[in-house]
Amino acid sequence: MFGFLHIGIKDVVDILLVAFLLYQIYFLIKGTAAIKIFTGIAVLYLVWLTVKAFDMILISSILGHVMGVGVIAVLIVFQQEIRKFFLLLSNKYFSKINVSVFNFLPFFSDEEPDVKVWSIVKACRSLSKTKTGALIVIAGESELYSVIETGIKINADTSSQLLNTIFFKNSPLHDGAVIIKNDKIVAAGCILPVSDKDVKDEDFGLRHRAALGISEQTDAVVIVVSEQTGGISLFRNSDYRRNLSITELRKQLEQFFLTRENNENENETEQSGLGGKA
């Protein structure tokens, strides 16, 4: 195809798959100490390929044995990142790449606000004004059973009044996370896994690290209200946005709920189709 290089369609696909895999690895380990180790392994591999190309037999043989043992070393060194990778797969992370076209529809200000969205947004606005720290986890397709078990089960309708009461500074549940699932507050005072990523942002406190941690392991959306600044942050799929306005928060939540509803409808349709065939 390209003259003396003889690159065909299969080669192009092969290169793209490798590039995609490397990108996903980088995405998982960026901001952690593992990125330096990964870079060192990549450099060592390139050196090995170079000495092989120049027929340097002795050094090539030594590096070949090192690379052979390196597979086991990689599994040991990157065990946490590998665990996160499979957690993301199990939570259908990659299905989020093919985002529904509805995610890109504009949100018009004259539309009637969604009650479940407005309850959360109203609470966050109030908590932000009073600089009351808050940590709210809205479940996606992940069940979050292990997290729910760490808190106090409530199972009440989502309301701004209840959220404000839970996060009131003298409340015994103030420091934990609230879990919202199927439009209900199912638990409060929950303990979340804390991320070990090296984040350089100022005032990135324990609530923010906990929010990042659960977003790394599940498909949940997490809202943090800073106790120091009153700033509102939103975490999803190992990424986050800081200092959101109330309008931006509402749009992000509307988009999340719309995507979740579309996925649920698709799953119901698939199950109905399977049932009909049976």
Structure overview:
- The protein is an alpha+beta fold.
- It folds into 2 domains: 3-90, no CATH class; 104-270, 3-Layer(aba) Sandwich (YojJ-like (1), CATH 3.40.1700.10.
- The chain is built from 9 helices and 7 strands; from the N terminus they run H-H-H-H-H-E-H-E-H-E-E-H-E-E-E-H.
- Strands 2-4-3-1-5-6-7 form a 7-stranded mixed beta sheet, with helices on both faces.
- Helix 5 runs antiparallel to helix 9.
- The chain is elongated, with a radius of gyration of 23 Å.
- The model is unreliable at 92-112 (pLDDT under 50).
CATH topology of the largest domain: YojJ-like (1
SS-based structural class? alpha+beta
CATH 2nd-level architecture of the largest domain: 3-Layer(aba) Sandwich
User: How large, in whole angstroms, is the Cα Rg?
Assistant: 23 Å
Number of β-strand runs: 7
Taken as a percent bin, the fraction of beta residues is 5-15%
Strand arrangement in the largest pleated sheet: 2-4-3-1-5-6-7
CATH level-four homologous superfamily name of the largest domain: DNA integrity scanning protein, DisA, N-terminal domain
Binned, the helix content reads 40-55%
- State mean pLDDT (0 to 100 scale): 79
CATH class type of the largest domain: Alpha Beta
Largest sheet: 7 strands, mixed
